Amino acid sequence: MKKIKIALLGCGTVGGATYKILQMNAEQIAQKTGVILEISKILVRDKERPYAVPESLLTTNYQEILDTRDIEIVVECLGGIEPASSFMLQALKAGKHVVTANKAAVAANYETLVSTSAQYHVMLRFEASVAGGIPVLDALQAPLNSNDIEEVSGIVNGTTNYILTQMIEQGQAYEEALKMAQEKGFAEADPTADVEGIDAANKLSILIALAFGEIVPIEKIATIGISKLSKEDIAFASHLGYKIKLLASAQKSKTSLQASVQPTLVPKDHMLAAVANEFNALFIHGNAVGDLLFYGKGAGGLPTASAVAGDIIEIANAIDKNAAFDSYVNKISASHLTYLGEGSNAYYLRLSVSNRPGVLAAIATTFSQHGISIESVTQEVNGDAAKMMFILNEVAREKLELALLALEKLPEVIKVACILRVMN
Amino acid sequence: MKKIKIALLGCGTVGGATYKILQMNAEQIAQKTGVILEISKILVRDKERPYAVPESLLTTNYQEILDTRDIEIVVECLGGIEPASSFMLQALKAGKHVVTANKAAVAANYETLVSTSAQYHVMLRFEASVAGGIPVLDALQAPLNSNDIEEVSGIVNGTTNYILTQMIEQGQAYEEALKMAQEKGFAEADPTADVEGIDAANKLSILIALAFGEIVPIEKIATIGISKLSKEDIAFASHLGYKIKLLASAQKSKTSLQASVQPTLVPKDHMLAAVANEFNALFIHGNAVGDLLFYGKGAGGLPTASAVAGDIIEIANAIDKNAAFDSYVNKISASHLTYLGEGSNAYYLRLSVSNRPGVLAAIATTFSQHGISIESVTQEVNGDAAKMMFILNEVAREKLELALLALEKLPEVIKVACILRVMN
Ligand SMILES: NC(=O)c1ccc[n+]([C@@H]2O[C@H](COP(=O)([O-])OP(=O)(O)OC[C@H]3O[C@@H](n4cnc5c(N)ncnc54)[C@H](OP(=O)(O)O)[C@@H]3O)[C@@H](O)[C@H]2O)c1
Ligand SMILES: NC(=O)c1ccc[n+]([C@@H]2O[C@H](COP(=O)([O-])OP(=O)(O)OC[C@H]3O[C@@H](n4cnc5c(N)ncnc54)[C@H](OP(=O)(O)O)[C@@H]3O)[C@@H](O)[C@H]2O)c1
Known about the structure:
The structure is a homodimer.
Chain A: E1 2-9, H1 13-24, H2 26-33, E2 35-43, E3 58-59, H3 62-67, E4 71-76, H4 84-93, E5 97-100, H5 103-108, H6 110-119, E6 124-125, H7 136-140, E7 149-155, H8 158-170, H9 174-183, H10 192-195, H11 198-212, E8 222-223, H12 231-239, E9 242-252, E10 256-267, E11 279-286, E12 290-297, H13 301-320, E13 339-341, E14 344-354, H14 359-369, E15 374-382, E16 385-396, H15 397-409, E17 413-422
Parallel strand pairs in A: 1-2, 1-4, 2-3, 4-5, 5-6, 8-10, 10-13, 10-17
Antiparallel strand pairs in A: 7-9, 7-11, 9-10, 11-12, 14-16, 14-17, 15-16
Helix pairs in contact in A: 1-13, 4-6, 8-9
The complex binds NADP nicotinamide-adenine-dinucleotide phosphate (NAP) (2 copies).
């Protein structure tokens, strides 16, 4: 049986779990695939720290890995854009195949990484970088390549989904739920990248490249996190039949792309609403297959390493079959995009208003003057003040912003307290 | 760009839709994959019938397709075990790659088809044969090959799921719901293969081969359809917090395999309970990735043909890369199974009993004597008679059957009216 040698870069949560899976399931892997996978070196920062791997494998010198000719696959589990990206490029240029779980590095350097892998005829795979263990990037390649993909939306960040689940189910405030997530290991000490939607935007950028063949850097994706969400809007949304989820969404038509990461009202009977805690789910719409949903664990050592190890196996199979290597990713075409933005959506709006006769009439008139129609309105009166919650029918974000400016000038309107997208 | 020629066998629902997708999405496919796919012959029974394809492609002579050297891929969309299986074997032996949507033929001749494709170094793919457009067989290969798969369960038959959805949501009786499904094109004139669970058993047999590497012919899978289900048990199950779904399930441990197709009580908050109408969903548990769920359309021309076309693209990519061909399916190993059966499950039981004091005590004693514990009991009294609905804790089916024999001998018990599995 052919033996294939592998180097791991990093031996933290994902690196350590990758080592574990290749040990634990070695027999099945060999039996199913006909290849033996051997981790022969592991890059760490400090050899003296305790790791659950044989000490003899550890090295602190990356050059040693690059120089070892019989290492055919380099698995990057360091995290961060640098030095991870440079390390990957060096490996590709040294003729080694690369697997990574690093969405930040892949999103930041997508074109360079993909084109380098193509130029050096080696494979680059990053299944674990989006939605952890759910094999969705693989599915977006060949199995769905017969489709024109029209939409990719989903819950791709486990930390924020855990926090939102606590807020929805326990009625907790954001800070309280964040603290609990940190205690349970679902959020990091510095949660910024997760709670501000940056991690989700990295993943969406990768999904857009694979599903639509367009390169959209995260700076161009409208991104709103969950740190400003109030208990109150979670409760009002629930009352109106919705759960608020942090959705990463992209819809494509011939020449336009709508993309955003933002808290979104999802109807309670939609399957995405049932995705709780640290779970992730991806919804895909193809013009042939219709609607698909993929659900599973988006984070955690073993689930993420399951995808890393799957990529290793795909590459090992290709080596074993002497396949002419090609990056597994679809070709990126010259972009024909004429529009990139949030597009048209239904919206949830909460206004603070003075409680006097004619206030609804004034607001409704303003909406109507801006061509916006109201789907529903509810209110909660508290003495002189009142809260009004609207669900507005589909409207372009730009148009809505103009209407909000006009609303804020009405004497009856105290302030626009909350605007959230409603899932189409 | 490389052009790859393809023959379709059959131009019905799936064959016709495959032709349509390759036309409709030709540009994207060429752009994403770098190959041009051309359907150059289509086998039909009668050239005079109207088809939505150019007449010049039609042939009634299969030998002509086998003899055309530049046809590299044969796509079987005829249905039925024969002549489909023989046609596929002939194509493989002629050095042509084969794609099929035919679960009956694949389940019946799995080993022969797979070993012939390996022997002749050509590829055999059958993604569409299980759960239509959902790319689950592909996922069960490389992306999840790093896992020891422990369970595969799901709703894999759209016809029965449509009928059950009508029964659950509209309170219809089985016959009424079947008639409606037939009118809407979700059930065939002769619905036997679907409603008796045979179609689902074919799919489960294929899933077992891919997930566990074991060959289990459908005759060895305990199979119960939905045609005997009463409105009454649907309603009682709902009252107890469950929806009844036709589940195809297989669980594997080191040496034993539990496999069955049967109507099963699924807790209402489980994601499988949310799968309605003609949709399918597959639940997979791997020892690294944990729980995964794949959801989408399990039938219909375009969704099914999406998977067929996906397989064509995978093969075309392999041809394009000069990959040493191998059947894409995992190697089947010598079986170590010592047990194959329904295994241990929780059960729902409905008894008709006489309404007299002591009846529950007598029944409970009998269960206890057989080592079976009761999770809950509810009853509905109607004069002298009563119905008792039990949920029993996990017990081996064989043990349950012994207890039922004993129950039937009790003077208080009129009959065992219904036994259904409850999802673990
Ligand atoms: N954890 C998850 O659930 C998950 C899920 C999906 C994707 N990912 C991705 O997987 C990657 C790894 O995440 P992780 O959770 O495994 O992180 P982690 O537990 O922090 O592990 C990273 C390891 O790499 C080491 N490292 C960093 N830079 C190094 C360098 N220059 N030289 C040598 N060692 C270095 C770190 O050592 P120090 O501690 O000394 O810095 C640490 O031991 C990230 O890209 C992450 O986004 C993670
Ligand atoms: N339809 C679905 O939603 C679906 C989903 C998943 C999988 N599948 C599978 O896909 C396959 C095809 O199903 P389908 O729905 O497309 O069936 P279909 O609509 O009945 O089409 C089959 C076609 O093949 C023709 N045919 C059969 N035997 C032939 C022969 N010996 N020579 C020439 N032509 C022959 C039939 O012609 P006649 O009418 O003259 O017999 C018919 O036109 C089946 O294996 C099915 O299980 C179907």
